[in-house]
Design goal:
Layout: H1 2-21, E1 29-35, E2 40-44, H2 55-61, E3 66-72, H3 86-99, E4 106-110, H4 112-123, E5 130-134, H5 157-164, H6 168-178, H7 186-197, H8 201-212, E6 227-231, H9 239-245, E7 252-256, H10 264-267, H11 269-280
Parallel strand pairs: 2-3, 2-4, 4-5, 5-6, 6-7
Antiparallel strand pairs: 1-3
Helix pairs in contact: 3-4, 5-8
């Protein structure tokens, strides 16, 4: 009887240890790992997009690089988290790099993903070897208001309420109106719209609001690694304003696409691939 009791106690202790120490760490993103190589590339998609936005890019690098492709929580059908935030996502990506012992990855980010890449490289400068920023700015709101200052008490609830009050049909029509302003390539338009409408509406509103309130212009002075900034053709019209936002990023190399809109990887593919290859290799 004593032996049985002792065995039950030992078993209970083992199960407790498995539960406490063996539970997988959770992050506010889904990760797909592909390819093989000593050098890692970490891909962060843009607002309300799937990591699949990087499929063509990854196929070029998977033979020689280990690729980590993220889709953020609440976007493109990935389950949402309770309280998403730009800073929370930045710190979680940095934690994933540290905890998975990914040695100085190259980070490639599009749109809001580019903002996250800038923030990670600034706050965690020893973690990253290079960054590629695809059509992103340190402070999006400053394009319309150069004197913009982040509000520490920013309230995103009105935007969330507005978006969550829309019917699925109304939200779909809204995206069908707005997304063609961001992409010329009609072959991928339906795909991008699909990612958007399968995103969690609360996350959509919260993160759009939070990102608009984000100002990285001073923070990027902390970036030490090489940085390639790829910008859509339209931004060439505003070079002084664009590059003024990046004035504190001493390592920045700028290149402006020849054609297309925000989704440079789809709209000016050959140019995009050439810029990326020259910088990475």
């Amino acid at each position: 009887m004593k032996k049985t009791t002792a065995l039950l106690i030992a078993l209970a202790f083992i199960l407790l240890c498995i539960n406490v120490f063996g539970e997988a760490k959770t992050y506010p993103f889904q990760v797909k790992v592909s390819g093989k190589g000593k050098q890692a590339i970490l891909f962060i998609p843009g607002f309300a997009c799937s990591g699949d936005v990087w499929d063509a890019t990854k196929s070029t690098y998977e033979k020689k690089y280990t690729c980590y492709t993220l889709t953020m929580a609440g976007f493109a059908g990935v389950p949402a988290e309770a309280t998403p935030s730009f800073k929370g996502w930045e710190d979680a990506i940095a934690a994933y790099i540290i905890e998975n012992k990914i040695n100085k990855p190259i980070i490639i980010g599009h749109s809001m993903g580019g903002g996250l890449a800038l923030a990670i490289a600034a706050d965690y400068p020893t973690l990253v070897s290079k960054i590629v920023i695809v059509d992103a700015l340190p402070c999006l709101a400053a394009m319309s208001n150069p004197d913009f200052k982040s509000n520490p008490n920013n309230d995103c609830s009105p935007m969330v309420a507005k978006l969550t009050s829309l019917t699925d049909g109304q939200f779909y029509q809204m995206q069908m109106h707005s997304i063609p302003q961001l992409i010329v390539d009609t072959a991928h338009l339906k795909q991008v719209v699909g990612w958007s409408v399968t995103s969690d509406r609360k996350t959509f509103g919260t993160m759009y609001c939070d990102f608009l309130n984000t100002d990285l212009r001073a923070k990027i002075a902390g970036i030490k690694c090489p940085a390639l900034v790829l910008l859509e053709s339209y931004f060439a019209t505003f070079k002084p304003a664009i590059e003024a936002q990046y004035k504190n990023l001493s390592t920045a190399q700028f290149a402006y696409a020849n054609k297309g809109k925000h989704f440079i990887m789809f709209d000016d593919t050959d140019w995009y691939n050439q810029q990326l290859a020259a910088f990475i290799k």
